Amino acid sequence: MLSLEEYQKIVSELMDELPEEFYRDLNGGVIVSEALVIPDYARGNDLYAMGQYLIYSGMRQIVLYKGSFDRVYPRADGEEARNLLRGILRHEFRHHLESLGNVHNAASLEAEDRRRKDAYLARHAGEEKKADKQ
Description:
Elements: H1 4-16, E1 30-33, E2 51-56, E3 59-65, H2 66-72, H3 78-100, H4 109-133
Parallel strand pairs: 1-3
Antiparallel strand pairs: 2-3
Helix pairs in contact: 1-3
């Protein structure tokens, strides 16, 4: 498991890979939280938020959740951790860039995330129906 310092160092290095323009209006910056975050719609201990793009009170911020990362990838270190974190960070930056561009169509990451959430809930609804029949 990565230490907090290792996690922060990797995130910092990954942030350096991104063009300066990506940071436009990201006035809350990129924050590392030690929290383990389970989305409110989760149906069990099978879903964790790795990161989040937040807009509130005029602030735009990306938060990466080390606690969630540790729960899902407890053995990730080195290059594996770097690649996983790169994907998480870029996912959140895509939310930021699409928000700046006011992109809210069917091809947006927001729509893709909604489809994943709906599929997750449908899977669990199917499992609940199956359990009710038994």
